[in-house]
Write a structure and sequence with these properties.
alpha+beta, Spore Coat Polysaccharide Biosynthesis Protein SpsA, Chain A, nine-stranded mixed beta sheet, binds 2-acetamido-2-deoxy-beta-D-glucopyranose, transmembrane
Length: 452
């Protein structure tokens, strides 16, 4: 493990210095002097390295304390510096016992943070120097996803942590965050879909319901949505799915804290963070579901990972895992089905009053372009992921594999990317239609119980 912070305090340097005096104090030949200098240098280096490691060890700073700080309940909590935003801490013992806090930080301005652990019942407060790891995929924006990682005190199993820029002060004033994933649990579901950001008065109701019903047909039991904002009609649909037990909403009011861009790349427009903080939401979603879900599916609401050789995700993933032992990351190729090109099939009259796209009518996909690589989205084993980006993982314990196009593709129905193509140049691909009857039946059921 590489802990990169500066050494604090010099007290532990004294014992090697004493040894140096004993060894080198009297004799005066050049040879001995040279040996002494080399010895001294190596001793100092060894203790320096040891100190560097030690400086991250939790230290008791108060005894007989009570944990009084208020428990933070919002998804995004700013610290007093207004440069650090805490999403959630997660227990992670895959390497050593750490608390990994998913957050958003200013990549330059946030240099030092401490985890304050309140250990009950012995009433000791420990402070650990955090390792701040700003994810490399920041795309030029000043703020980015970060892991704030702290070694936990031994024999404590803290349930809560506070994050603070100082190793001193009064803990009573600091919000406390629950450390999730503390206790191992059996998986409750096979597949959870993470939708990283719903924003901009989202009102593509028909396509959303169709996507959700497709996820369920393919094997998802849960869909987690990081919701910034959506239309009133959409709220009604979400309420239905929450009551059904399929959807979990994570409020995502990122624009109350930072100037968000709706682009993924920084554009010198004074914005702070890309695409509604999508990357942070995805990382949070993986950790949030690490113990609950065997697989996590990372895609947008207009994307469906469509198996072509198997009836559903479960049989597809069993087969892919068998063929790729040790792989935790499965990457699927994105294909655009433009919403501007329709067929007359499946023009269902009762759906015409519902806002949004009817995906069954869009079965023409754009051909691959020379020199353009189709982006990929993922199904991952969350326990194998350390840090994720949107189209790949940044750090993982297992390998990644590109799933070939004959096994599955991403059906992505949206505005065209190759705008000027005539219809004849598109590839007719009706893979989605295999599911037409159950999809139509399920969508009708939801519509009749929500908005029709
Ligand atoms: C969070 O919820 C808990 C329990 O519901 C409550 O005691 C606490 O005051 C809340 N914290 C804040 C900051 O609202
Ligand atoms: C942080 O932001 C809040 C609200 O945006 C503001 O009231 C406060 O003064 C800011 N604090 C600092 C230290 O900049
Ligand atoms: C949702 O966001 C849009 C712009 O992104 C804004 O115009 C609208 O007022 C917001 N709606 C709500 C209910 O917050
Ligand atoms: C669907 O049917 C309606 C009439 O029922 C018609 O106005 C519309 O153009 C049709 N759309 C497509 C894409 O076939
Ligand atoms: C719709 O699905 C049924 C079976 O569920 C199938 O027999 C039929 O061919 C499908 N329709 C189209 C147009 O593919």
């Amino acid at each position: 493990m590489m802990w990169q912070h500066k050494v604090q305090g010099q007290r532990n340097l004294h014992p090697p210095l004493d040894k140096f005096r004993m060894l080198c104090g009297r004799k005066k030949s050049y040879f001995v002097a040279a040996v002494c200098i080399i010895t001294l240098t190596s001793m100092v280096t060894v203790s320096y390295l040891r100190l560097q490691r030690l400086s991250h060890q939790p230290k008791v700073i108060q005894e007989g304390s009570k944990c009084r700080g208020e428990i933070a309940n919002s998804t995004i909590t700013p610290l007093k510096d207004n440069k650090t935003f805490i999403i959630s801490p997660y227990f992670d013992d895959r390497e050593s016992k750490v608390t990994r806090v998913i957050g958003i930080v200013h990549h330059e301005d946030v240099k030092q943070l401490y985890c304050w652990f309140c250990c009950q019942p012995n009433g000791k407060i420990y402070v650990s120097n955090a390792k701040i790891d700003v994810h490399s995929d920041r795309f030029g924006f000043p703020y980015g996803a970060a892991d704030i990682v702290c070694l936990e005190p031994e024999n404590c199993d803290p349930t809560h942590v506070s994050i603070h820029p100082f190793a001193h002060g009064n803990i009573d004033q600091l919000p406390r965050f629950e450390i999730k994933n503390r206790k191992p649990e059996p998986f409750s579901v096979d597949f959870t879909v993470c939708i990283s950001a719903m924003f901009g008065n989202y009102n593509n109701v028909l396509q959303f319901i169709q996507s959700l019903e497709m996820y369920k047909i393919l094997g998802a039991q849960k869909v987690v949505i990081y919701k910034n904002n959506c239309s009133h009609l959409m709220e009604k649909v979400l309420k239905f799915y929450i009551e059904e037990g399929t959807v979990e909403i994570i409020p995502w009011p990122i624009n109350s804290h930072l100037k968000v861009s709706s682009r993924w790349h920084f554009f010198l427009d004074g914005t702070d963070i890309g695409y509604y903080g999508q990357i942070t939401a995805l990382n949070d979603c993986i950790y949030r579901n690490m113990q609950r879900s065997k697989f996590v599916v990372l895609n947008d609401a207009d994307e469906i990972i469509l198996p072509l050789k198997h009836p559903n995700w479960k049989t597809m993933m069993s087969s892919l895992q068998e063929q790729n032992p040790g792989t935790g990351i499965f990457l699927f190729e994105n294909h655009i089905f433009p919403e501007t090109v329709s067929t007359h099939m499946f023009n269902i009259s009762s759906w015409n009053t519902v806002p949004g796209v009817n995906i069954l009518q869009h079965v023409h996909r754009e051909p691959d372009r020379k020199d353009v690589i189709n982006p990929r989205k993922m199904i991952v084993d969350p326990q194998k992921v350390i840090q994720t980006s949107v189209h790949s993982v940044l750090h993982a314990y297992g390998d990644s594999v590109n799933v070939p196009m004959d096994v599955a593709l991403i059906y992505h129905c949206r505005k065209p990317l190759q705008r000027d193509l005539p219809r004849e140049s598109l590839v007719r691909d009706t893979a989605l239609w295999r599911y037409n009857s159950s999809l139509i039946m399920n969508v009708n059921k939801v519509l009749s119980q929500t908005i029709l």
